[in-house]
Amino acid sequence: LNQIVSHSHFRLETNTAKPLNPKTIKERLLAWCQWATKDYPVTITNFSSSWADGTAFCALAHRFAKPETSFDFEALNPNNREQNLQLAFDVAEANGVVPLLEVGDMIIMGNKPDWKCIFVYVQSFYRRFGTVN
């Protein structure tokens, strides 16, 4: 990967005019998620099961939340998927992330959500916060 990392800033973009292939974009977005959540007790290795309990979404939302929309991340219970997902989606939307996923859909998908749904939603986090330190 030709990831561009500078100080506390991660970017998906490249300095070349050559378009990125879909696999590279997916790898870079995954790396950005890992970078953004490195200070949280979550492990993000994919765009499916890593997001199922809602804590990875909560970590992203908490990382970029304005003070007035922040929450106590340490109080989360990984076994309470519905509450975690609702909190993450609400905080993300309050901070400018386009609401592309529904809690009910995530619950129905179970422990292995459709990676394409997660991937598209996480892109909305990147579009909103990708250049924020």
TrEMBL record:
<keyword id="KW-0597">Phosphoprotein</keyword>
<keyword id="KW-0175">Coiled coil</keyword>
<dbReference type="Pfam" id="PF00307">
    <property type="entry name" value="CH"/>
</dbReference>
<protein>
    <submittedName>
        <fullName>Calponin-homology (CH) domain-containing protein</fullName>
    </submittedName>
</protein>
<dbReference type="InterPro" id="IPR001715">
    <property type="entry name" value="CH_dom"/>
</dbReference>
<dbReference type="GO" id="GO:0005768">
    <property type="term" value="C:endosome"/>
</dbReference>
<feature type="domain" description="Calponin-homology (CH)">
    <location>
        <begin position="23"/>
        <end position="130"/>
    </location>
</feature>
<dbReference type="InterPro" id="IPR036872">
    <property type="entry name" value="CH_dom_sf"/>
</dbReference>
<keyword id="KW-0967">Endosome</keyword>
<dbReference type="InterPro" id="IPR050540">
    <property type="entry name" value="F-actin_Monoox_Mical"/>
</dbReference>
